[in-house]
Amino acid sequence: MIKDYNICSRCVMDTTADEIFFDKNNYCNFCSEVNDISTSKEDYLKIDNLVNDVQKNNSNSNYDCIVGLSGGVDSAWTLVKVKEYGLNPLAVHMDNGWNTELAQNNIENLVKILNVDLYTEVLDWNIYQSLMYSFFKSDVVDVELLYDNAMFAANFQQANKHNVKFILAGTNTSTEGVRIPSNWNWYKYDKKNIKSINRIFFNTSLKGYPLMGTYNYIYYRFIKKIKWIPFLDYINYNKKEAEKELEKKFNFKPYTHKHYESFFTKFYQGYILLKKFNIDKRKAHLSSLVISKQISRNQALEILKEDPIKKDELSEDINYFLKKMNWLKNDLDTYLSRPEVKHDYYQSERKIWNYFSSIYRYLK
User: Fold this and answer.
1) For the whole model, what pTM was predicted?
2) How far apart are CA 76 and CA 198, in angstroms?
3) What is the pLDDT of residues 227-250, one digit of tens each?
4) Nearest Cα to Cα of residue 196 among 155, 264, 145
5) For residues 302 and 279, what is the distance between their CA atoms, to the nearest angstrom?
6) Average pLDDT of the chain?
7) Which residues are CB-neighbours of 342 under 8 A, at least 6 positions away?
8) Measured between alpha carbons, how far is residue 350 from residues 69, 119, 186, 322 in Å?
9) Gap between the Cα atoms of 151 and 299, Å rounded
């Protein structure tokens, strides 16, 4: 059943999200789930408690926490503030072969000026490219599952290796509070889904490749007691102000949209998702900024009128993507023309995760 189009009167989420519904004010459930962001004295006490916990649980002489560093504003600001609070982090970066030169420069400037050790997990390009081929062949929506899953695996593995109990991440309510609808992405710890799709289409050996499944997460979280902390929720975080400070002190060069530090993420979110799935993730990202009062709804609507990738860049980006993937233009056109296949058409851990989540919520 096709729903009549509607857009929220408070944020910019709309009926391209499958499970959206609206109240009598035409406010959607996505922004209603998010509390307004406010900073109080109590919030500052929370950050002090967190810093004390991190230092107290430090049983390693080299590092007391892990900071995942993508090169974007959120993770960069997390690293800066973690250092300001006197912590000694190991920065962990995931290189899947799609880093932009701008992101590389931003990361190098940050770790050099902050005097932070950097561990880079460089994924085997032949394996990663093969997995991408498989995901394109499968026609599932969340090709970024490949990066996100490996990124989680790398961070937890490094925390475990260095006996560190805290991963301080750039995930936050201010810029990410509005959740991504279920039809826009997939469960990120789904190792079985990745293996199933790989086995069906190319059956590439994944020996030594970092993967994260539900049982891996349970092991790291509840046996090894490693916590994933949305660090920026513990401080007064304003993205524009952070960006200005990064530019001023670390020669940080900003990106046009969230997550555009990766070329593929830019191309995937700015072109593939729109063309093949009619999904514009900017709606969720901008809605988060609207709800946290960092931009107005009218500003968000004006941004959405703009092309996600500038027209003068798009042709060049398509050519770069085709060259790196060893595709012809016809391969891309054929892929874009095929209908979506749901992730759970293939084997998945989603039901296992839901089962353990329900037990956890009940016990809690």
Assistant:
1) 0.94
2) 33
3) 999 999 999 999 999 999 999 999
4) 145
5) 17
6) 93
7) 140
8) 27, 30, 9, 32
9) 32
